[in-house]
Sequence to fold (62 residues):
Amino acid sequence: MSKEKKAMSAEQELKRALENLFEAYRKKLISERIKKGLAKRKKKVLENAKRSYNTRNIKTKK
Fold:
């Protein structure tokens, strides 16, 4: 049973690590858009990115 618990905890740890990696990658892409001036308003871009993220065009609503 201890092997099963270790396997479960390792699986959960891997899942958390992958989620953190994806989140960091998403933030990096957004910050690159902001630096390039492609994103007009930083706050609105970050809000929209949480809902749906499109690497080519982040649409902002007025």
In short: The two ends are 56 Å apart (CA to CA). Helices lie at 2-36, 42-51.
